[in-house]
Structure formats: C-alpha cells, structure tokens
Amino acid sequence: MLGGLVHILRLGRAGFVFAREGVFGLVDLETMPRPARLGLRLARLIERRRSRTRSDKLTAALTRLGPTYVKLGQFLSTRPDVVGPAIASDLEALQDQVPPFDQADAERIVSETLGQPVSELFSSFGPAIAAASVAQVHKARTRDNGIERDVAVKVLRPGVADRFRADLSDYYFAARFAERFAPDSRRLRPIGIVDTLARSMAIELDMRLEAAAASEMADRTKGDPAFRVPEVDWNRTGKLVLTTEWIDGIRLGDRDALAKAGIDPEALGRTVIQSFLRHALRDGFFHADMHQGNLFADERGNLVAVDFGIMGRIGPKERRFLAEILLGFITKAYRRVAEVHFEAGYVPGHHSIDEFAQAIRAIGEPIHSRTADQISMAKLLSLLFEVTAIFEMTTRTELILLQKTMVVVEGVARSLDPKLDMWSTAEPVVREWISRNLGPVGRLQDVGEGALTLGKIVGDVPILLARAAMLSERVDELTRDGFVLSPQSLKGIGEAEARRNRWSTVALWLIAALLAANLLLG
Known about the structure:
Residues 94-341 form the ABC1 atypical kinase-like domain. It is a single chain. It contains 21 helices and ten strands. The chain is of the alpha+beta class. The strands form three sheets. It has a four-stranded antiparallel beta sheet. A four-stranded mixed beta sheet has the order 4-9-8-6, covered by helices on one side. Strands 7-10 form a two-stranded antiparallel sheet. It is globular. It starts with a helix and ends with a helix.
C-alpha cells in the first residue's frame, strides 16, 4: 500500500505541473467521458494566465518534470493514436537540451567504466559539445599503433538511470490503474505503451546496446550507395560510455554550407528517402530518429546517420504490407491494397473487402489529381490509419513508429528539395523489394524455407511425443484421487479479492483528495 501511495503522490505532483502550465487546456473535451471533462475543467482553474503557444506549454511542463517526462513526450510524439494528431505534432518540436554536467564527473565516469585513466585512453579529451537529459558528447582524440584520429565520446549523465526507473514505475502504476478502472483505455494498451518506452530507455541507458545498434546498421548497409554509419570503437565503449568515429560533416539543415561544399541538395534529398525505405523494407531495421540533427553530409556528399538510441524493427509481414500498399497507391490498385490488409490480419474478416477498397479509393484518388511535389507518403499513411480505424484495425505500434519516422524523413528530404517527387523517388526501391521477395526468386526462397521448417518439425516429433507422454502421466497422478478446492482455499481466495477491492477504493479516494488539495493550494 505504501508503494501505491508514493506513486499517487508523484503522479499527483505531475498532474499539478501539467495543470499549472496549461497542458490540460490542449485536450479536446469532446473526446473525453463526462467525469474526465469535469476533472479537466477543475484542473484548469489553477492554470497560469500567460500567452504561450501549445508547444511552449508542453515543453515547459515536461522540462519541469525532468528527463523521463521529456523522453515520454518525445515517445508520445510517435503515437498520435494515443495523444491525438495535434498534440503529437506539438511534441515533435520538443528539444532535449540541458546544461552539461561537470567535466570532472564525465572523466570519472569514463575512467570507472573503461577501467583505465582518461589520459591513457585518449591523447586529448575536450569539454562537452552537446548535452541532453540522458547523456552528453565530448570530442576526444585517440592514438593506436601510432595512428591518431578524432572520436566522439558519449557519456551517460550521473544518476539518470535511477530517475528513469522511479518514473517508469509511476507510469506502470498509472497504466495498470487505467486498464482496470477505465475499460475504454484498454484499446490503446497503456501497459504496452509503457513497455515500449521502457525497452527504448533500456537501450538509451546502456551504451553497449546503442553501440550494437550502430554496428548492426553498419553491417546491413555496408554496400548501400551514398549512406554510411560511424564506426564503433569497442575498446573504448562500456555500459556508460560510447565511443565512435568523429564525423566531420555538414548538418543537413545548413543549406549554405552544403552549397559551399559543392554538395547537391536534391541528390541528398533522394538519398534520405531511398535509404530509409531500403532499410525498412530490405532489413526491417531502421533509424527511427532521422531528424536533421542526427544526419550529416560528409565531404563526398554521402549521408551519415548518428545517434542510434531509437531504432525501429518490422517483420516480414509488415514489410510486405508497406511495400504492397505503397505500390498499390502508385498504380491505383486499390482493391489489392484492401486485400493486403485482410491477408495481414489487420482488418477483421467479417468486413467487406469491396467496401474497404472503396474507402481506400477515397484516399488514393485525390493524390492523382495533384502534382508529384504536393503528395506526401507520410500523410497518405496517416489517412490510411484513420480510415482503417473505422474498420476495426487494431493499433499496430510498429507501423505507427514507421509512419511517424516517415513524416520526419519526408520533412528532411523536402527541406533539401521542396519539389522532390516522393513517388518516383520511392518507386525503384519498392519495386526492387517486391520483385525480389514476391517474384519468382522470392517464391523459390519461400519454398526452400518451408521445406527446412517442415524438416525441423519432423525431426522434433519424437521429442514432442515424449513430452506429451510425460504430461499425460503427471495429469493422471494429479487427478487419480480427485482435484478438490478445500473450503479453506475458497475462503482465502474470497478474502484476498475483498482486500484488493478495499485498497482500490482507498486509492480512488486518495487521488480525489490530492486533486482537491492541488486546487486549493493553487
């Protein structure tokens, strides 16, 4: 009970900060149940009376609450199905920039993590050049076998892991509470949302996992045209420290510097789109944070991606789904797009394919009446997900992350070339994947994989039969003399359930009391 009270107090403080900063004023009351509308109206009584934009209110509240809430905001920017398109758009602008922590602390963490003094690991170790709530980056120099090179050293912020663990436990408490007492919220899978955030943070809080993501992407993309990933220095990487090759590149947002270096921005824009689609379709593994701050152009005009804390993965079914719907819209094969949804199991089978194809046509036809540079693939996917909700398509977290990444990637590409034709740029990558995976070669590969799977199943039959026989014997032992619940057992179950109900009622009253106290103190 004490743990629950601590969660309630911390969440109550967060609610007070949101109310004071005016965040509740951004919520569309018409979409909320009546009790929630009343609570939000009461919370707005303590709102600060100042003129600020929507994103400023969100930024102020999340920054006051600390790094975990900033990360939660950035994560929810990828979930418009949860917070709504307007708030998701506001959260995209949320910047994670804080003052750097002390240089001596950074060097101590590096030394303790890597087991050697900084002076032995690096010939020079400069001050922080960028700082965020999770980590900061230093420029350093190494000397190995007489060869010197510049490196980027990312160091985890002291104490941040403990803060994240505490805040995540609050989120789990709130998610469990919502799923139990607000049945309508179960459609959005609150606990699943926190699970996804926790997995993402586990990677960001262990530099070895981020290094592994960078290394995996480097292996998968080593033959890609005009795209590369910084090399990881594994000898100088540990749980709290990540060292990679230093990139002397130009940020994609600096158009003047790109022109001065003789780099073609239009070609670079095409590389951004094609690289993302190639990674998503071919590998099922893509950089899910491809904003301009994480993308550089090197002296050869190659695209270089950094910061692999947020990565996306999609399976073969999702890759086929993406490729076929993109090609279907390009070729106006609306019924095929509808069939793909049903084949993937995303839309329940009791719906009509013809009616669904009609709804998809309503999205696709307006596209073909516009010029190529006016068509947004990301917007198309967003509209598609809105329509599929009518046909009971369940939330697909991996597809939403893909769609939101596409929004960012498309924005970066259009900033380089405002007239970029997304469809002609995407079509070669999509067609190549379809011909390779759904054409004759792909079908032969499927046959071969099917034969291997069948062979494995046949080989496992003796083991499965032995396990079945053992299970049958144990069930027979349990039921030989009867399997009975004693009156004492039944009484104990009843008393435990009654205790849970009593504590749930107490928790509800405590939350109500905290809200009333916040209103009075405000």
